[in-house]
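INFO  loader      accepted 1 record
INFO  loader      residues=233
INFO  predictor   begin
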Amino acid sequence: MRMMPNWRFTFDGLSRFPFIQKTFRSINLSHQYRSTYQIGSYTTNLNFISDADGINSLRDLQNNYIQQYEIGVVTLNEQFSPLINIDMNWKNSLTTRFEWRKSRTISLNLTSNQIADARINEIIIGAGYRFDEVQIILKTGGGQRALKSDLNLRFDLSIRDNKTLARKLVEDVNQPVVGQKVFTAGITADYVLSDRFNLQLFADHTMNNPFVANTFPTSNTNFGFSLKFTLVQ
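INFO  predictor   done
INFO  writer      dumping tokens
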């Protein structure tokens, strides 16, 4: 009977207001928090001895109490995924989205007396539009075939900061070891060819700007298409 610090909230009641209904079909708000606590490894100390009350009074050569378990690595992960998310469905077939995510992962290494503190802050802005009954003519076997289906376009822009600090407990030094700002822009187009075939075109561009001096900026571009086939009875 322990309460776990995890929750999720969703709210879609804004679409019930008359002034919202004039412009939007629906507006959904969501918020979520998740946390995990993990012990990487531990060993049982054979020198641990407790009395009838469960109290241990033995000490080692450094005058430290002899514990029952020797733990090597402890990791705490917290995620606001999302911290806030707003999905808006407009009456003119336009969809927009705003999402803000935050997370951190803290690992305590008792062997090296060091804490690795990794933090991520990301903002996502997206938009989409649906074109109804778009006609495409395909040439097959010397003839032509006309297809008519909805065309869904989607654009997403992401700005993410990744930073990792090495906190040395004995030296009392905080040193950045890894970190970069990532810009990602992508667009996708989905078209239903038939009840079983779905065609998707995609293109995205990613730019990495590092925070530390020993790494270099990078840029990647991907584009292509995918054809999905669904097996139905």
